[in-house]
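Anyone else keep sequences and structure tokens together like this?

Example one:
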Amino acid sequence: MKTMFKNNDLTQGKIWKVILNFTLPIFLGTLFQSLYTTIDAIIVGKFAGKDAFAAIESVMSFQRLPVSFFIGLSSGATIIISQYFGAKEKEDVSKASHTAMLFAIVGGLILSILSCILSPYFIGLIKVPQKIFHEAYIYTFICFSGMVFSMIYNIGSGILRALGNSKTPFHILIFANILNIVLDLIFVINFNLSVVGVGLATLISQIVSAILVFVVLMRTNLDCRIYIKKLTFYKKYLKKIFVLGLPIAIQSVIYPIANTTIQSKINMFGVNSIAAWAISGKLDFLIWSVSDAFCISSSTFVAQNYGAKKHHRVKKGIISSVIMSISMILVISITLFIWSKDLAPFLIED
């Protein structure tokens, strides 16, 4: 258990190696987090049919909009905490962590409520076919109702990563995804719940991951330890989170907005087109996972070293991150280009 609470000082060691070791769990964690919906789609595609698969995928881009915005906003918290950790400002690390966690809880609740209320309107706006409209709405409602737990997990894992711990969030995601797979199979195959079943499985898994990361933060002996009684909005840190996080949040939703616009046009062509577009999106996400992982790791690396006033490591770290990111993206792109036709049948039976 002690290893779960261990931090990693990114201001020491060979730069490329430190970044790579820190990035790999984040990359794998990003993949595992995306597996919530990917596994949902695969299982309904195999056992509940193409319509159920299309129902989930027809709203996927829309579902990513609010989540991407708040995750981008929470990145501001990770950067702030990383800077304070690098500067050895223990009290600032603690207060910023408590502010960020309360923001996750309050912001997540508001996001869940608003998203559930507005989802029927937006599902209609993106022209989901009437044939799968009801299933798409039910799945969206269930997923949106659990956004507060997704926010708690993402902020909690961001706090841990700020102190250089990228492995604990990854371990939690592994457990949550195994649970999600088991529940998906039980609900879809045994209880024949189709889209409702995979939605409930995802919700339960997100609740478990949120509880686990919160417990880790409450039991750690590091400066980011969370005490329920100390959860409060410290104006100084909340302002900094918004100043740094808002530009990232806006940038984070540009791609989902573009995809949602395209998705609304694809939806007009029916179930077959939705399914085909979804398959390409699942494979394409591998590339974006690399980019996102290096973005998170490099920002944490830069923040820690900036806080420690080791500016020479900042420039070298950025260059190393760009080179490694491009290299991995090229390898994945070439692999997908060659074997994409062989990978597609794993996602859907038809």
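And example two:
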Amino acid sequence: MSTADDSGGSVGTNPAIDNLNLPFNAGDQAYIIVSSAMVLLMVPGIAFLYSGLARRKSALSLIWVTVMSFSVVVFQWYFWGYSLALSSTATNGFIGNLDKFGLRNTLGEPSPGSPLIPELLYSFYQMQFCAVTAALVIGATAERGRVVPAMVFTFFWATLVYCPLAYWAWGANGWAFQYGVLDYAGGGPVEIGSGVSALAYSWVLGRRNEKMMLNFRPHNISLITLGTIFLWFGWLGFNGGSAFGANLRATMACWNTCLTAMFAAMTWCLLDFRLARKWSLVGWCSGTISGLVAATPASGVITPWASILLGVVTGVACNFGTKVKFMIRIDDALDVFAEHAIGGIVGLIFNAFFAADYIIGLDGVNMGATGGFLNHNFRQLYVQIAYIVAGCAYTFVMSAIIAKAIDLIPGLHLRASSEAELLGMDDDQHGEFAYDYVEVRRDYLAWTPADRDQKADGAVIVPQHGITGHQDLVDSARKGPASPQVSLPTTPPSEPAAELATKEKAAEAAETTE
């Protein structure tokens, strides 16, 4: 064979001459490529979910920050993220080195996850995990966070929070890996990393305007449902692919993922029904996501019957966990902490009790692994608790430091102004809208010529964001005199076509001068 290739080939090989595919299993590679694509779909799923949970005036902004965070992570992961998170040559227990900087030395190397897939593919698959976690965190900006500082935060968060957490659990020399922690697909790096980071960011960002929170409800439940379905589909690649091969462990992980998600969803719906006597679709979506979260660290290590129990416990824990933000007075607008951090913690604790050695060995690689209490490994509980405490503490402190440091940089303050918050992030940050009602407003103005005359005197004819109560809150928050409201007809009066066309032109001119 030839000497090593500077572009990143294996030592002692030349990719131009040697067939680097020979050591790897083509079927396993195909499965991980498909799983990577499935996990990628979780990012738009998160975007739709967050957009639907927010109010209409910030719906587009949450889609933008979610998909843009993916762009930031792709660069960070290629640049040095993969090397810091999963390099196998680092000798410390905290974070990797720069041996894989720019994907060097990955082309023909076997992956740390399985010798049957190449490291180049492994790094691509793991990049999706970081991207999904960053997208989850960015929900903390909901309805009051500026988007550019959030992207700066994403880069440094991925470097200083996600990479160490991933290295602890999955790095060959990570301290948690060496202690024998059981974290199948990311209860620490992904779920604790996202939930606790979102809590820290929300704490630094501050609470939303309380006057604008009266009668708050998600603006589009159809989008929430669509996002949940995207997430469920992607999660099968997330958990199934973490077996790093098309094997029985991957199949078991998919089964356990569905069982946990469904029993968590049913439990959440029942808990909501006891209060409202209504069957909530948002409750079903929240329960499903909580179950998927809990299955992340556990689906590849516990039995199906334990997954059912995990779903029930997770549904209860995460449902009541939504009350935590009110107790600690942190405005976690989208309940990222309740669903992800708490769900991840429950899944990790379950591993200590219900992990089974024969489930872990279904991948054909980890035969002889030690389970939890079922295999009389009582030490596992202490390892899991230490891992959880260390992950939560490090994540919150480091995320808060990063957010606060960025907030102190001139021009990068995290929070939008109070006027921008009242206006909405879509208008303030993007100048685009998820729903544009300009044409509807013009029709209303054309139907009410008398109202247009009043508009010249400063009256508000149609509230800017669609409901009269909203405009009252805006006026109250600004402590100015309330603008008179004008009732609008539900049907247009009968008018000659020429007169109506003249009024439409006048309305367009009035809109232009606003």
